[in-house]
Amino acid sequence: MPTPSSDVLLIALGFTPSLLWLVWWLRKDSHPEPKVMLTKVLMLGIMLSPLAIVAQLLFVQLFANIFHVDPSAFSNSPWFFLWAAFVEEVVKYLAVFFVVMRNPEFDEPVDAMVYMLTAAMGFAAMENILVVARVLPDGLTATVGLLGLRFAGATLLHALSSALLGYFLALSWFYNRHKRALFWLGLSMATMFHWVFNLFISQMQQTVSLFFSTLLLIVMAFLISVLFDKIKERDALVHTSIA
Fold first, then answer.
1. Which of 42, 81, 170, 214 could be 112's S-S partner, Cβ–Cβ 3.0 to 4.6 Å?
2. 158 with 123: CB under 8 angstroms?
3. Distances, alpha carbon 87 to alpha carbons 4, 92, 156, 157, in Å
4. What's the pTM value of the predicted model, to 2 decimals?
5. What residues have CB less than 8 Å from 13, skipping those under 6 apart?
C-alpha cells in the first residue's frame, strides 16, 4: 500500500528531470518571467496531460473499429505515433494559450519559447510520474536509471519540440499578418520532430535507435539554442530601430 512518504518520493522523482531542464533553459531568458506565471503554465501542463492519453486511446479504438484490427497492434504503428505526437504538442500549446496568450506579462517574442518549454516540462513531469509509479517497485536504482534515460531522452524531446513551436509563435510578433500560418507551420514541424524521435525509439533495434535518437536530440538542442538567440537579436534590433 502506498504511503505518504512513497507518494512524495514518487512526485519528487517524477519532477526532477523536468525541473532540471527548465532551470537550464530559463537561463536563456535575459528578462526572467514572473514565477507565478511560470508555475501556472507548469501546473496546467500537468493537469491537461491526461487529455493526450484520452485522445490517443479514442483514436486507437476508433481505428480498430473502422478497420477491424487489434487495437494493441495498431498502438505500435507509425500512424499511431504520428497522432500521439500531434496530440501531445497541441495539449502543451493549450497550457500556454489558456494562461499566457492574453496576459500582459507576455510582452516579448522570446516569452513564447520560454512558456512553451515550461508547459512541456509540466507535461513531461506527469509522464515521468506515471513511469516512476510503474517502475518504483523494482527498486530505487532501477527507477533512477530509467529517469536518467528519460532526462536525456523523452523529457528533453518535449522541451525541444515545444520550443520549436514557441519559435514560430515568437515569429508572429514580427509577421502578425501570417500569425495563423506560422502557428500551423510550427505545430507541424514540432509534430514531425516528435514523430521521428518516436519512430527511432520504437521501430529500430536498440543500439541503432539510441544512436539516431541521441543524434537527433543533439542537433535539435543546438538548433533551439540558436533560435533562442536569433529571436532575442531580432527583438533587440526592432527596439533599436524604433528608438
1. 170
2. yes
3. 33, 9, 18, 15
4. 0.93
5. 128, 129, 132, 136, 143, 144, 147
Q: How far apart are CA 49 and CA 79, in angstroms?
A: 20
Question: CA 208 from chain center: how many Å?
Answer: 24
Q: In the structure grid, which three cell numbers stand for residue 39, read together?
A: 508555475
Burial (CB < 10 A; 0-12, 13-18, 19+), residue 158, is: buried
Whole-number Cα distances in Å, 60 to 55, 187, 204: 9, 22, 22
Angle among Cα 16, 41, 197 to the nearest 5 degrees reads 60
Query: What are the pLDDT digits (tens) for 188-243?
Result: 999 999 999 999 988 777 788 889 999 999 999 999 999 999 999 998 887 676 65
d(CA 58, CA 160): 27
Per the CB < 8 A criterion, the answer to whether 215 and 159 are in contact is no
